[in-house]
Amino acid sequence: MNDRNCLIGVDAGTSVVKAVAFDRRGNEICVHEAPMPLRRPEPLWIEQDMTELWEMVTLCLRQVAVRLRESGREVEGLGITSTGDGTWIIDAEGKPVRGGILWCDGRSGKVVERLHAQGVAEQAFDICGTSVFTGSQAAQLIWLRENEPESLKRSHVIFHAKDWLFYKLTGLITSDETDESLTMLSMASRQYDRQLFKIFGIEDLYPKFPPVKPTVDNVGPLLADVARELGLSRGLPVGSGPMDVAACALGTGAIEHGQASSILGTAGIHEVIMDKPILEPRMVGMTLCHGVNGRWMRMLAAMTATPNLDWFLKELGTGYGLEAREAREDVYEHLGELVDSVPAGAEGVIFHPYLFPGGERGPFVKPTARASFTGLNLNHTRQHLLRAVYEGVAFATLDCYRHMPIDPKSVLLSGGGASSAVWCQILADCLGKSVSVPEGSQFGAKGAALNVGNAVGVYRDAQEAVAESVRVARTYEPDASNTRLYHELYEVYRLTAERQMDLWDRRAEIIARKP
User: pTM, whole model, 2 decimals?
Assistant: First the structure.
């Protein structure tokens, strides 16, 4: 690979699709992104239109291809990553059967409660190491069988978002170890386990699942007609995977045992890397194959992270944007100043960041969990609530790391939240660990690009890819006094959530009653 060669990574996210070109050193050459609308046909449903997702991907790829041609760059490989979990179905003609059901969809809440109450979820955990939640494909397939059986009758292949995009690009029907880890693989064999299909009562659907491959081997040539449409070379190697969370870990350099990676994006994703699967503590979080051979990941994923701040700004902080414009400041820099004006601990205000319709999944699974502020009095201002939102996401992060089988010494941080210095420092203080932010911003796309680079021989292996392309931009060290305070408040945060469990259920029952 010479200095003019490059790799492209596509990250088809929950709300934004991005195509990014990287040089061998991991530098971002150019990027094009497009918003991806979500469909909410019912209050608890969150879907993407499969055809629209493909169109957004092609739009982004065409724009990047134009800029690369103009600069005389040659593309060596194209890597694809996208959201994990969820359910994406095509018929025998390769057309979408219905909308893609996302990981944050909440329709299977009652199914999940039943699977846990009947001990089915625990049986499955012994094999796959993942605690079933509303975004789990198995739970969604059970819901479809009970509520939308015609969709399963029409189904030819059941797979995940990146698999759909890979099929459109190459015509191949496959998946990789990272996506299928959740929840249909044995962690011991890294292959489908028929017992899991039997446990969930979906054994008849097993033939509809695609072949599962090691991520580095999940590669195929770009179709000629698609290549012409995109302005890329016919037969260009296309790599599918890893899924987004594993791609971010690879893109930030978290590939060795004991390393930790957190993503503050739509979800709060927290991972530790393992050289063998560790299924302790039981019934907590997820265990999945890393996109790196011989590596696994233990992941605890809070359902929502940065959308808590987005919601606050939209509903309670509309004036902050105007203030920032008048001061000629970036709105998030302005928010950082406001947060810094309030002492650590927000003078007793605590926020539980459970805003998504699917409730919470990490470190506990509770479809009825909902967000709340506690500890308010007349002396508190919007700034206190604002800081409490930042800290609530940090408490959720600490809650996840307290349930990991490995206690990491430091954390690599990516996602939109990593761009906020204030949030990074709050996280370091709350965790009591160094938090490092790597150079760059598009780590999911970067992980996909590094994987295909490894597949086509640009790098010898994942270790060389990381050594060549990952560098730390800045590090935040914890303030010991703040850490002590946060760890005391965390106990209040944790106990408050535990004592609301039955109340969340009662609230949901009342709201669900028909008038």
Answer: 0.86
